[in-house]
């Protein structure tokens, strides 16, 4: 198992400019429960009963395929709704684009795409709709993808940390919000390199913990700051680091990628910004985290830190209050890192 370097790189230039705050609004302190949003109807076909059973833990379902992988996020309808909402936030962040790298813009067609850790499959389906000439494969530990998809999409249940056995290379490998999902990032990035066609691209888009603020309105003794600290500690204890994004650029370079580019965006924790785009992103980010924070937290807190789910629920009431506080001008850094496999 490889270890991430201890030294954190300095923030790169790019679209992560300082955001101007809008006037704060009143906070609804009573709305503190997990919520759900409409999404693609999830189903699956021709999968073994052991995979379809799922595991029950703290009132949530988790994948049953290779449970020893100890994946920290649930695999149930609530999580699927949150993932589809998260897809919308990325779409807003990237100005209605599904990816940021130059794949397909250099006269080289995108014939095959791998969506690594596809989740609900919504990105793969959208990509297939936009590129009917491209064969898209989505891989995930859980069979939560839809049955009715474009004819150029195929979904498979598999473990990205096991050896890969694809018979043809890809022109684009895409991974989104995989922080906390993998235990050996250099191995994963090397496998991506080996399974790309010459000139193919790898793009990783991910969140970086902890949340931060440019004007110090996120106080270090706040409940939200403490939640961030607990989540980071628990991730390391379970060997599922959620600080992986800051190492992607160097790990791609080490694996042999060229033209490696790192951009940092911002997801405001709520609609505190004045800018309309950031305000909308903050609106959906607030729903994403406040609505799904129990599912995001419960495995980390109970498996690694020894909390009970009841203790966590009480703690999260105060975390949600901080997330909804328009006077806290905090955001999560969102990293978009991509690189190209050299032409032979």
From TrEMBL:
Residues 1-46 are annotated as: Disordered. Signal peptide: none annotated. GO terms for molecular function: methyltransferase activity. Residues 20-33 have a biased composition (Acidic residues). Residues 35-46 have a biased composition (Low complexity). InterPro entries: SAM-dependent_MTases_sf. PANTHER family: LAEA-LIKE, PUTATIVE (AFU_ORTHOLOGUE AFUA_8G01930)-RELATED (PTHR43591:SF31), METHYLTRANSFERASE (PTHR43591). Belongs to the methyltransferase superfamily. LaeA methyltransferase family. This is Phosphoethanolamine N-methyltransferase 1. It comes from Triangularia setosa.
């Amino acid at each position: 198992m490889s270890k991430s370097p201890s030294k954190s790189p300095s923030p790169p230039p790019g679209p992560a400019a300082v955001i101007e705050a809008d006037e704060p609004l009143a906070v609804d302190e009573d709305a503190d429960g997990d919520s759900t949003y409409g999404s693609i109807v999830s189903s699956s076909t021709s999968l073994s009963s052991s995979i379809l059973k799922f595991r029950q833990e703290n009132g949530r379902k988790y994948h049953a395929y290779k449970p020893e992988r100890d994946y920290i996020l649930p695999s149930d309808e609530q999580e699927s709704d949150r993932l589809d909402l998260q897809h919308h936030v990325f779409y807003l962040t990237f100005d209605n684009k599904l990816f940021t790298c130059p794949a397909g813009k250099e006269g080289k067609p995108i014939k095959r795409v791998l969506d690594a850790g596809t989740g609900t499959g919504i990105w793969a389906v959208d990509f297939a709709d936009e590129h009917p000439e491209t064969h898209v494969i989505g891989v995930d530990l859980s069979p939560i993808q839809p049955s009715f998809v474009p004819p150029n999409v195929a979904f498979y249940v598999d473990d990205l940390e096991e050896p890969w056995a694809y018979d043809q290379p890809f022109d684009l490998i895409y991974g989104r919000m995989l922080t906390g999902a993998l235990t050996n990032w250099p191995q994963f990035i090397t496998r991506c390199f080996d399974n790309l066609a010459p000139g193919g691209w790898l793009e990783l888009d991910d969140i970086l913990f902890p949340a931060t603020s440019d004007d110090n309105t996120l106080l270090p003794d706040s409940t939200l700051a403490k939640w961030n600290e607990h989540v980071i500690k628990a991730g390391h204890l379970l060997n599922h680091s959620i600080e992986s994004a800051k190492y992607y650029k160097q790990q791609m370079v080490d694996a042999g990628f060229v033209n490696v580019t790192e951009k940092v965006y911002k997801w405001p924790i709520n609609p505190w910004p004045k800018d309309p785009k950031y305000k909308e992103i903050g609106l959906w980010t607030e729903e994403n985290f406040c609505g799904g924070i129990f599912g995001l937290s419960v495995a980390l807190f109970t498996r690694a830190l020894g909390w009970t789910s009841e203790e966590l629920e009480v703690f999260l009431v105060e975390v949600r209050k901080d997330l909804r506080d328009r006077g806290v001008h905090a955001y999560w850094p969102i990293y978009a890192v991509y690189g190209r496999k050299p032409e032979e």
